[in-house]
Amino acid sequence: MTTPLIEARGLTVKYGSKTAVDHIDFAIPPGRVVGLLGHNGAGKTSLMKALVGLVPCSGELRVLGLAPQRERVAMLESLCYIPDVAVLPRWARVDQLITLMSGLHPRFSAERARALLKRTSIGPRDKVKTLSKGMVVQVHLALIAAVDARVMVLDEPTLGLDILSRKSFYEMLVDEWCDGERSVLISTHQVEEIQPLLSDVIMLNEGRVVLATSLVDMDQRFVGLSHDAAAADRVAAAHPLLRYRQQGQAAALFDGPPPADVAALGQRFQPSLVDLFVALTRAPEMNRTVG
């Protein structure tokens, strides 16, 4: 059996009396691209900070077989982290940052960083303060991706970027870093954009995991049913996770196949990751508003 790169059992993060991450379990094996989804305040950033050893936690947590707080230096040799704000010194030139990283990290490849940056319009003598936010993120990714690591943790890496910059970021990530042995955990609100990249998803709601599964298993498990308004009461009686409108038509989302008599009332479809996210994190609210 493959040893997970990240494994949590009963993981809890607290700030005083407030519980940000509440006794969660999950595992990430090698070669996975995992989306971490949740509304603001759901616990995503607290979870990521626990993974990289920035906040104390309880329960069991191993990253690359190491305890993030006690063995952080050793862990960071094989882990890359991009927080939700790309913090680079504004006074520095790009080539100076590459030189700096060469002296800081034993597994950093200056040659690889330069090769990645050649895919962009960023020059080696450009200063950070002259770059757009999208360019700063590209520099940050190039520096991080040039580290020979096994795990990458990305917290809202494309926040504030335009759609072209986001597309460029994800293309570089997939083409230059994902190789079947490394794993990526990425938190983002652009769910529809990253769905094609993902192999797995972890959904958080109020600090708890409401779903942790592969997208293959997700597609097999959850079923959407579009139906006429006249059938709404009969569909509702089957207790779907969510009732909403899909392309102007009444629809319902079920955990597993709906009963045969209910399925006969409409047309099955594959719900999107966004549909499922809404169903598992806001379903009671949505069901009150959809007739």
Features:
33% helix; disordered C terminus; 4-stranded antiparallel sheet; 291 residues; 28% strand; Rossmann fold; alpha/beta; 6-stranded mixed sheet
Short description:
The chain has helices at 44-51, 72-76, 94-104, 110-117, 133-145, 163-176, 191-194, 215-221, 232-236, 260-263, 273-289, and strands spanning 6-15, 18-28, 33-37, 58-63, 79-82, 151-155, 183-187, 200-205, 208-214, 222-227, 242-246, 249-255, 266-269. The protein has 291 residues and is of the alpha/beta class.
Describe this structure in words.
The protein is of the alpha/beta class. It folds into two domains: 6-206, Rossmann fold (3-Layer(aba) Sandwich), CATH 3.40.50.300; 219-289, no CATH class. It is built from eleven helices and 13 strands. The chain has helices at 44-51, 72-76, 94-104, 110-117, 133-145, 163-176, 191-194, 215-221, 232-236, 260-263, 273-289; strands at residues 6-15, 18-28, 33-37, 58-63, 79-82, 151-155, 183-187, 200-205, 208-214, 222-227, 242-246, 249-255, 266-269. It has a six-stranded mixed beta sheet with strand order 5-6-7-3-8-9, sandwiched between helices. A four-stranded antiparallel beta sheet has the order 11-12-10-13. The chain has a three-stranded antiparallel beta sheet with strand order 2-1-4, with helices on one face. α4 runs antiparallel to α5 (133-145) and α5 packs parallel to α6 (163-176). The N and C termini lie far apart (47 Å).
